[in-house]
Amino acid sequence: MSTTMRIHGRVAPGFEGVRDAFARSLDTPERSGAACAVVVAGETVVDLWGGTADPSTGAPWQAGTTTLVFSVTKGVVATLVNLLAERGELDPDMPVAHYWPEFGAAGKGRITVRTLLAHRAGLPVLDRQLPVAELLAGAAAAELAGQAPLWRPEDGHGYHALTWGWLVGELLRRVTGSSTGELVTRYLAEPLGLNLRLGVPAPEGADIAQLIDDVPRPDELRLLTEPAARAVAERLLAARSDPDSLLSRALTTNGVLPTPHAATWNAPEVVAAEIPAANLVSDARSLARLYGACVAPSGPLLTVTTTTGATQVISDGPDRVTLRSTRFGLGYQLANDAVPMLGPGSFGHPGAGGSTAFADPRHATGFAFVTNQLRMSLLGDPRAAGVLDALRSALVAADTAPAR
After folding, report:
1. pLDDT band at 235 (very low <50, low <70, confident <90, very high)
2. For residue 216, with 0-12 CB atoms within 10 Å meaning exposed, 13-18 middle and 19 or more buried, which class applies?
3. pTM score, two decimals?
4. Which one of 25, 71, 248, 282 is the catalytic residue?
5. Can 71 be counted among the known catalytic residues?
């Protein structure tokens, strides 16, 4: 069977190159699967899927297959936060302690919601290891509220890989009285008819693709010839290998929830919990429609004023945790050289393992690529990048830039 025959779905005229790039991204379709969707000016122009959803049974990826998308979750939660701020329920410039008094302990009384959302709160790791059951029950929020920050907000930023979700989730609970999963359903999934689920009990998870771990590849360091890039990669590799490094502790919650790791995140109890930084279950179609709705030319989910404010750069440059350059706005990761998206105005969030979703205001575009084949590459993930290159070419050729 040819690669092209393994791809299902449709593309609008002019977007055939995206389909071809997506087909190339499925380098092991007998073991793994993926889906890709693009919405432009409110219209779905790409809706594709292919490969295998469960390698243990050979079940194919279907139109309705969902998957756990790791930190793509953060972009969805950021959209929720910005929507609540737009409605006047939350003020990004208020101290977090205004809504959550216990958070003000240990010198954190002046940390604002804006600071927290932009990974400047200095709380990327827990001071002590908590049992998995306690983490899944949400106990991390109270632990973090009592901790002293590792740095002051004015001294930089560092990626809060998992703690961001517990912190923002508790903030939202204090503001609204509801869990993040309930809010995602109420404000995003139900009004827009999207498959966005944060906390999926086992009986409801029949459509979820099984994650599979990285396929071993040759040493990538030898492919890096530029000295600066090689130096960054060597530091990153050393930090990943050191269980006591800030990066390792942040990505594994002190060794308890290793990320990405298929067995950990496939576990029914992990999928059923609410981890607002990492365990959203969704499909490419829903994620692209969500971001497309944020930048639609008419009737957008978020106003231009809101998206403009949400994408103002708050954190930029060397990241204390990831050891590479990152850029954040009000909860969203913003495009930079390491996370190109479509262009400088794009906003959203990639996820560990390879999934990514974002909006691009210039082209009124929502994009999503999701996969169950986890990758942890020093050189970046070529799968979504190749699809994005093809999409960029298609948009340029179509001169698709509707005004908002």
Report:
1. confident
2. exposed
3. 0.95
4. 71
5. yes
- The domain over range 64-390 is classified in CATH as 3.40.710.10: yes
Q: State pLDDT tens for residues 355-373.
A: 999 999 999 999 999 999 9
Identify which has the larger pLDDT, 337 or 255: 255
In this prediction, residue 29 has a pLDDT band, given cuts at 50, 70 and 90, of confident
Q: pLDDT band at residue 218, thresholds of 50, 70 and 90?
A: low
Mean pLDDT value of segment 202-225: 83
Angle, helices 72-86 vs 284-294, to 10°: value is: 30
Q: Any residues with CB less than 8 A from the CB of 177 and at least 6 apart, and which?
A: none
**Residue 233: band (very low, low, confident or very high) from pLDDT cuts 50, 70, 90:** confident
Six token digits for residue 76: 């969805």
